[in-house]
Amino acid sequence: MLALLFAAALAADTSSADLRSLVRKALSGLYLEDERRGQFLFKARNDKKDFDAAGKVTNHTSYVWERIDVEGFPFGRSIERDGKPVTAEERKSEEAAMRKRLAELKAGTAPAPPKKPNPADEWYSEFPEALEYKLVGEDTVNGRLALLMEASPKAGYKPKNMRARVFEKMHARIWIDKSASELVKAEAEMFDTVSVGYGVLGRIEKGTRLKLQRRMVGDGVWLIESQSLKYSARILMVKNLRSETATEWWDFRKRPTPAPVIAPATRP
């Protein structure tokens, strides 16, 4: 069935329904991102910059950490903060907290992790339905062939979730791996400002940009390897935010056989 959809997408008379089906299929992998990532150990870097109204950087922080396996349980361990290795004191504090948490997990007394919302209820699940798609060709991403599509707001679409209103003012380009039907790359930009709750709850400003890239890390599993968001927003008509955040993941390794009860990876 998937091969037929790809064949249809490459045909001259490609229909919106064919492309929408491809997008829907490709995005389904994102809903399994947390579950899939839980199967791996890795290293990660978080970087954040804040800007003033003139675009000058007012604050810049970075954090490098790794997920490790301790007796079958995943934990987060700090490596660097703002370009400097963690101190011996910080490492000692983390290890003490880790030992305490590990004892709780073994004894079954650790607090249950918070229940995550059903991905089907998430606002981004409206992306396939909220935009119109146009096939513009093929491209190579990480050495693999991908279909390249452009997306623009679908006329008359009514968002079911308030936050999904961003799709009304968004242009995007998405790459879908031809062999795996997974989303491999995406770039999106707000071409106009969107008000949430008539502007009372907030505003997402024109020029806000999102990028992400995914790759196959092993056993047919696809995960995000990098993502960035540069945004300007106003919250509750009071606070203006101008920031850029970027996260990258690397050194993916399959986890050993997990313990019977698995806790979510904790970060210091």
Description:
By secondary structure, this protein is of the alpha+beta class. It is built from 5 helices and 13 strands. Strands 1, 2, 3, 4, 5, 6, 7, 8, 9, 10, 11, 12 and 13 form a 13-stranded antiparallel β-sheet that branches. A hairpin with a 2-residue loop joins strand 3 (73-81) and strand 4 (84-85). Helix 1 (2-10) crosses helix 2 (16-27). The radius of gyration is 21 Å and the shape is globular. Residues 1-13 and 260-268 have low confidence and may be disordered.
Amino- and carboxy-terminal Cα gap: 45 Å
- Portion of residues in helices? 10-25%
What does the overall shape look like? globular
SSE-based structural type: alpha+beta
Give the averaged pLDDT, no decimals.
85
Low-confidence stretches: 1-13, 260-268
Biggest sheet overview: 13 strands, antiparallel
Query: How many whole angstroms does the radius of gyration measure?
Result: 21 Å
Tell me the β content: over 45%
